[in-house]
Amino acid sequence: MKRAVFPGSFDPITLGHVDIVERALPLFDEIIVAIGTNAAKKNMWTLEERKQQIENAFAGNSKIKVAVYEGLTADFCKKIGARFLLRGLRNPSDFTYEQTIAQANQKVNGVESVFLMSSPEHGYISSSIVRDIARNGGDYSALVP
Ligand code: ADP
To answer: Which CATH class, in words, describes the domain spanning 3-140?
Structure first.
């Protein structure tokens, strides 16, 4: 069973996230979209809201599950028997950020990271841009599922 975890804050889930998960479907038997929780981090949408948004985005696709975890992503992967971590790359700063984490996860936990490049039409989308627009009362509907 090829199971991958797609971890993130998903505050909120965007069309960029949806694109990565859908394009990764042929590679895996199951993809767990996993919301990492961190008590110190202030989110705009509650955990329940974020979970619901993700469930709605992938409703009807039995290969995609939603989960919530605390602590290290690699520990969560081990716990649920996922050998792969799925991540999206938009630009060189995503790459620089991801590189050492992926190397450490591989070395320490044997979890292999798989990266997909964002589609050109989604590369500029980030949850933080959506939050900025939302905070200022703007219309962000074109950026989210
Ligand atoms: P984090 O809090 O780890 O940054 P996010 O919820 O922002 O989590 O993102 C989760 C994953 O989705 C990361 O691998 C991130 O690079 C990727 N991602 C976010 N936005 C996009 C996008 N527009 N296109 C492709 N990948 C994206």
So the answer is: alpha beta
